[in-house]
Amino acid sequence: MRRWKLLPLLLLLCLVSVLAVAGDEVIRRLLAEGDKALSRGRSHYPDALAKYTEALVRDGKNQRGLYSRAELLSMLHRTAEALQDLDALLRAAPDHVQALDLRAMLRAQTGDLRRAAQDEQRVVQLYAKERKSQGVARAQKKLALLENFARRWAQLSPILDKPLEVLVQESVQGGKQQELYTHSVSLLALVIEHFAKDNVELRLQRAACALAVQQNQIATTELKFVLKQSPQNLLAIALNARALRGLGALNEAKRELRRCLSLDPEFGLCAQLHKAVRKQQKATGAIEAALESKKYEQAIAAIDAYRREEPRSVLEEKLLEWRCDAYLGLRDSARGVPACRELVALRGTENPLAVQPHLVIAELYMIDEAYDKAESELAAARRLDPRNGKIEELAQRLAKQKSMPPRKDYYKILGVKKSATSADIRRAYRKLARELHPDQLRSKDMSDAERQKHDKKFRDINEAKEVLMDDEKRTRYDNGEDVLHPQGQGTQGTDGDPTPVTPTGKTLPGFPRFPKPFPRFYPRGSGDRNFPRFRVSGTGVPVRGRGPGGGPGPERSERSNVFVFLTFR
């Protein structure tokens, strides 16, 4: 009787065993089908994921199923879900080496380097316990990297632990912790290289850090990868447009922004950036037009206004470069040298791109004839780029300029700065011409020596005006050339006598001194009232000439636009 009572229980146990065996067989079949789908490539990953998930529905603690699905999820960049499966697996099997190794890698990708190092430390211990020397060596190498990266990450946590959205917003505004952002860019590159080559989040994070310190080329490289993986990632599109804007590729930036706004017209970052790009195009167009027309002061004013309105803009480097060049155009070393030094500091004293501002500084020093300082700037440029032909070209100009004999200082003669504009030069010339014109001095009581001295000054200001009002001659003069007296030979004798002289001012032997030609042009005392009178260009001084028969000619009306300009040498 007792046997009959136990029979149903025995039948139930048999049924459970049969069902369990059948269930295990189904799970094995599902896992095998998942593996087969996985081996067929990325297009079959969804099928593989469905098979692994179905197997885990039947047995949620199946270790093989948990690991296979976690591995596939990591390949699909679904890191959070993969970590959930690995956590469940390691709760059931704490010494599962492959699961520990995979979780270490995924934790590294999320920036959890400290716990990633802990997982890898456990992997080293397990391999050592099993006496797998190759596994130990491989795990120890990975552990050393993780521990190093973890220490550095902790130091950069004020930047790297921020949510990506916050980091992106700060990159738009311009990072204030420049050094931390720069180091973050370097560390993220190492983490990506060793643990996360396909990780989109880390690449976005690195791009945002790079933009904060205007490393636009690095940002575009990372964002190109991200957009290849996720073409409609609005955040990546916006950051890429910002990087392109920083590189000066405004048309490409606008194209990206239009694509962004077509996907989401209300995406704030793209709308804000699109407005800034239009504004930038207008401002840069005005600056370039001013530089092209040599309106350097106008260009500098526009540059300074843009910098005030948009501090630390992505255009900062280009603005500083334009400002440096504008001061060279003005020949203004007092303002130009500090401006160019600012550009050197921005680009970095060890950056080959700093050669260009060094050369501009050297030219400014050459204009001031500060040759030692110019040579120092050329040496700094040569150290950065020894093969740069522009450096040697400027060095030859410097050597030629240093070897030239002394010449007249036309800026000093007119009493203007070397940065003087044409209007400044014309104004100074007119003032001196009124004071020094011989017709104004005829009635004054002065000695012959004094009169000759004033005559020479008058000739000098005319020479100065002739050179400095001509852009081509002025450039040659600023480069050290004696434009009107090549090779130092000219009429440098006393009172303007046409006597051949050496570059040092000595009369050549064998040549007599000639008397002044046309003595009537050099009156003594109150002199002859019939002295020829001319209107000197730009002075506004009416001057008489001789009429027919030698008599006084009629004075020209003040309304006359006819000017006669004579230069005596």
TrEMBL record:
Residue stretches making up the J domain: 409-481
Entry keywords, A to Z: Endoplasmic reticulum, Signal
Low complexity bias spans: 486-511, 535-545
Subcellular location(s) per record: Endoplasmic reticulum
UniProt biased composition (Basic and acidic residues): 436-484
One CC-aspect GO term: endoplasmic reticulum
Region (Disordered): 436-560
Biological process (GO), any one: protein folding in endoplasmic reticulum
Gene3D superfamilies: DnaJ domain (1.10.287.110), Tetratricopeptide repeat domain (1.25.40.10)
Xref: SMART domains: DnaJ, TPR
Domain of life of the native organism: Eukaryota
Keyword Coiled coil attributed: no
One matching Pfam family: DnaJ
SUPFAM superfamilies noted in UniProt: Chaperone J-domain, TPR-like
Name used for this protein in its record: DnaJ like protein subfamily C member 3
Source organism per UniProt: Strigomonas culicis
Native organism taxonomy: Eukaryota, Discoba, Euglenozoa, Kinetoplastea, Metakinetoplastina
